[in-house]
Amino acid sequence: MNQVAPGSGRTTLATVAAAAGVSTATVSKVLNARPDVGQETRVRVERALADHGYVPQRQRGARKKTRVRTVGLVCDDLLSPYTVEVLRGVSGAAAEAEVDVVVALLDDVLGGSSSDAWVRRLRAAGHEGMIVVACELTELQGAAVDRAGLPLVAIDALSLPSIEVATVGATNGTGALGATEHLIGLGHERIAFVGGPESSSCGQARLHGYLAAMTNAGLHVDAELISHGLFITATGVAEGRRLLGLERPPTAVLAANDPIAIGVIEAARLQGLAVPADLSVVGFDDTFLAESSTPPLTTVRQPLQQMGAFAFESLMRLVGGRALDTSHIELATELVVRESTARLL
After folding, report:
1. Which of 45, 127, 238, 320 is the least buried, fewest Cβ under 10 Å from its Cβ?
2. What radius of gyration do the chain's Cα atoms show?
3. From CA 11, how far away is CA 17, in angstroms rounded?
4. What CA–CA distances, in Å, run from 282 to 12, 16, 299, 323, 342?
């Protein structure tokens, strides 16, 4: 049986030396083909090396030098259901391509003056490109990536720098248009919109889709029915309570994402109202939150995993020096009707 050093999992020089009855220095001389070792000793050491399956350090090192390809993925919230779905799409496509994905938070890696340093570390570590997910990428951060020559693809970017960036998203305006038309078709006329940050490009597209549907139906939109906040549940709770406290509250709300919609449903509950009997609510994204909410949420489905896969494939094309068919990809959305919307009585 081969002898190995405790906990090491491999044969050591000392093990071979003990078996051959020589010093470790003599074993080293044999390994390095030094001439100052007698023939009989050399044969004995070589036999011990073979018997114990000894692999020289330089050979072990050579076996470990197989290149591991990596890309970086940067997001603003690792716990977001939206991010989880996108990451599944990216990691699935990357696994098929035998590429590792290193995930980090935006504030940790691209904040302020550290932007250049972090991008340099990405390059030094062999990262071939970067995907940013639902982030507001500033001019400073974009310039750091551009100076490093690091290929970049953005998924549902809240805002982008002036440098050319390949993007992957969904038909946000069309999705919001269809969701608002669904509410209008149920008889609702006083419909509110609770959006994300005003600087968010995808949020603005959803607002424009909502406004287009209202205009097409000849419905007036009071300014008090439109509000903005973060893409979080707390925004829905706060704005939902404000809207329901109006002299003429809305009978339906279109939220810019699922967490905001769930916050609006909670606001209705706090006001003693039932969804959808007293208020219809529609979300956006169709994350796992939508089916598990009470009641199950009517929402606009974004193909989040497919968006992640497309972003990875686009990045690999850029890494390989190949041009993209288009720099801006939009995948189709779909309205999923569940139990949070009902006809106005």
Report:
1. 320
2. 30
3. 11
4. 66, 72, 5, 38, 11
Report the alpha-carbon distance of residue 154 to residue 249 in Å, rounded: 38
Q: Which two structure tokens, joined as six digits, stand for 204?
A: 């603005």
How far out from the chain centre does Cα 184 lie?
Answer: 34
Model confidence, pTM? 0.76
Cis before residue 250, ω within 30 degrees of 0?
Answer: no
| Dist. CA 178–CA 313, nearest whole Å | 29
pLDDT in tens, 132-182: 887 777 666 677 777 777 888 989 876 666 667 888 999 999 999 999 999
Strands 280-285, 252-255: parallel, antiparallel or unpaired by DSSP? parallel
Rounded to an integer, what distance in angstroms lies between the CA atom of residue 257 and that of residue 231? Answer: 7
Taking CA 59 as the corner, what is the angle to CA 56 and CA 61, rounded to the nearest 5 degrees?
Answer: 110
Q: How many CA atoms lie within 13 A of 321 on its CB side?
A: 0
Inter-residue contact 257 to 301 (CB < 8 Å): no
Tell me if residue 114 falls in helix, strand or coil: helix
